[in-house]
Amino acid sequence: MLDYSFKLDFQVRDYECDMQGIVNNSVYQNYLEHTRHEFLKTIGIDFAEVTRRKIHLVVIRSELDYKYPLRSGDSFWVGLNLQQVSRIRFAFLQDLYRYPDNRLILNARIIGTAMNEKGRPKLPPEIEKALGRRSKNTNIV
């Protein structure tokens, strides 16, 4: 188990399970997205405010490795680390663990970027700061 810069607790709800009684594979994407949004809030990035400024934070690639299923009522947590991938891309490294045994359920690597209203890459200063970069104009024409 890694050290994570952010952790968020969850509990599986009945309606998230499929006919086999396990969490549907698509539901994990919701858990991961909610964790990313909550993380962004804690570092001062308001997703809605960034969007109002016509900067769109987008996922461009998702890699999920399912290790073990969750079932209704299971409690679990998602750990997250942010990593710079390139000048205009960043990755959310996310792992999901079940309580109380901390069994690994899922590994995920979600690649994102930000675009301006014309669809061109543009990292907002808040993202640059989170990545440890000095704020500067990052328009790419």
Judged by helices, strands and strand pairing, the structural class is alpha+beta
- Topology as a string of helices (H) and strands (E): EHHEEEEH
Q: What helical percentage do the residues reach?
A: 10-25%
Amino- and carboxy-terminal Cα gap: 41 Å
Number of helices: 3
Mean of the pLDDT scores? 92
> What would the principal axes of the Cα set say about the shape?
elongated
How is the main sheet built? Answer: 5 strands, antiparallel
Low-confidence stretches: 134-141
Percent of residues in β-strands: 25-35%
Provide the gyration radius in Å.
16 Å
Order of strands, main sheet, comes to: 1-3-4-5-2
Total number of β-strand segments? 5
Account of the protein in words:
The chain is α+β, with helices and mostly antiparallel strands and 141 residues long. The protein contains three helices and five strands; from the N terminus they run βααββββα. The chain has helices at 27-42, 47-52, 125-130, and strands at residues 6-11, 56-66, 75-84, 90-98, 103-115. A hairpin with a 4-residue loop joins strand 4 and strand 5. The longest helix is centred in the N-terminal third of the chain and has 16 residues, at 27-42. The protein is elongated, with a radius of gyration of 16 Å.
In short:
With 141 residues, the protein is α+β, with helices and mostly antiparallel strands.
